Each structure stands twice: as structure tokens, then as C-alpha cells.
Amino acid sequence: MSGNKSLCTRFTFVAFSSLAELQPVLFLVFLILYLFTVGGNLIIICLIGLTPSLHTPMYFFLVNLSFLEACYITSVVPLMLVHLLAETKTISVRGCAAQMYVFTILGLTECCLLAAMAYDRFVAICHPLHYTLRMGPRVCLKLAAACWTTGVVVESAQTTWILSLPFCGTGKIQHFFCDIMPVVKLACVDTSQNEIVLFAVSVLFIMSPCFLILCSYTRILVTILRIPSAAGRRKAFSTCSSHLLVVSLFFGTALFTYLQPKTAHTPETDKATALMYTVVTPALNPVIYTLRNKEVKEAFQRVTQRNPLRQMA
Description:
Residues 40-289 form the G-protein coupled receptors family 1 profile domain. Its main location: membrane. By secondary structure, the chain is mainly alpha-helical. The protein has twelve helices and three strands; from the N terminus they run βαααβαααβαααααα.
């Protein structure tokens, strides 16, 4: 570093600086989406907990996913809401580090968790007679623990490495939260090697779960097509359609964001895709798992019918 460069102690978000007049409207929209997402995921967790018939491996993983999604959106949106109303949209380096740790750990954990859910559907459809043996409670706990451990270990190491870089200059982040690439761009040193390693880690830990999911659903599709009756094929496909839709939304935006060439990155596309995977996709998940899931809808109806306040009315 040259001697006239001072290290940054705070970062400034400038993602919405050109939309000053729309910021109150954006605040209201994102607030509604945030409350809907957190409330929807908490409802799913409570429904599964209160319904013994849903105490199965598939819904055990859904509880993990719902908890993760609620934390995932909470790591980004509340601070963004504050900055939409505040004049100074700054964050300390330590605050940025905390946000990056939480966000990246939850992101990788979700990749692994979606792969575990695909394996659960593979066993249920392709090996139904061995399902209770292969997906027992201990196996489910081990799979969930492996997902969370992978996320914590890998992303803690990667994020610590990124934050060891010296940051200087104006400290302006062309984003609305501390995402990896916008923060790396603020470093005072050559980050080409860092970016190569980041790309390699993204390929390994995004593509590996994605490959496992593709293999699982290839086998599932072959098995479904062998079912003689149309009703049997529809029933088998309905058990994994919600998960397949969530996988498509999550990995579609993740692959577009973290595996595209550096030259293809622009602040506008980065912000648009980031809004998709931090706000829109988590908001869609409760809708997908309730409106498209017959068992969850029936559980919701039973719980609301048992509501004492409704009975008194």
C-alpha cells in the first residue's frame, strides 16, 4: 500500500442513493416482505411441532430450512430497512464482518440442507421399503449436523480470510449489505488470487450439492416414469415438487451470482440478483410449502379449528 492511503474503519452503502424519493416506498415493501417471511416460517415450524403426523424426516428438514430462512433474511433486511430511512447508511468494519459471517454461513448451510432434502426424497421414492431404516432419527440428525457444520467451518474460514485484507479509500460499497465481492473490491491490494480461491470455493461448495440434487432427481424421475398408473406418478411427483421449485429458485440465483465471470458483474445486476436471493426467494418459500403442500394445509386447518378463541366465538 502506498503511504497516503488510510485504512477504513466504516463502510457506506450506496445501493439506493439514486432512489432517494422511492426509499420510503421501498421501506414499506421490504418491511411487509420481511414480516411475511419470518411469520410464515415461524407458522410452518409451529405447525410441524404441533402435528404428530408431520414428525417425519421430510418435515424435520423443513423445520431446519424454515428456521434457516428466517435467520437468513434477518441477517440482511433489518439493517437495510434502517438505512432506507437514515441519512447516514454506514456500518463499522466489525458490524460488516458479523453480517458477512452470518449471511455466508447460512447460505452454504442452505445449499447442503437442500441436498439432504433431495436425498430424503430419493430414498422415499426410489427405496420406499428401506425408508424408515435409511432415514431414521439418528441419520436425520447427522445429516442436519453435517449441513450446519459444513456451513460454519467453510464460511468462517473463507470470511476470516477475506476480512484479513486491508480496506482503504472511500469505503463505499455498491450494495445494500456486506456481500463477498463488493467488500473484496474495497481492498487496497491485488485480490486476483483471492478471487480465484473464492471462485474455486463457490464451484466446489455450490456445484457439489447441486450435482447431488441433480443425481437424486434423475433417479427419482426414472422411478416415477416406471410407475404404471398416472395417479401413482402424480402422487409421487407431488411429494417432491415443492422442494424442486425451491431448489430451482435458490440455486438459479446462486449460480448466476457467484459463478459468472468477473467481467459480467455490474452493481445493477449484483443488486438485482441479491434482492432475489435475500428477500424474494425466502418470501416465496413459505408460500410454496403451504399452498403446494396438502399435508401442511390440512395441519393448518386442524390447528385453527382447535383454537379455543375460535371455539368460544
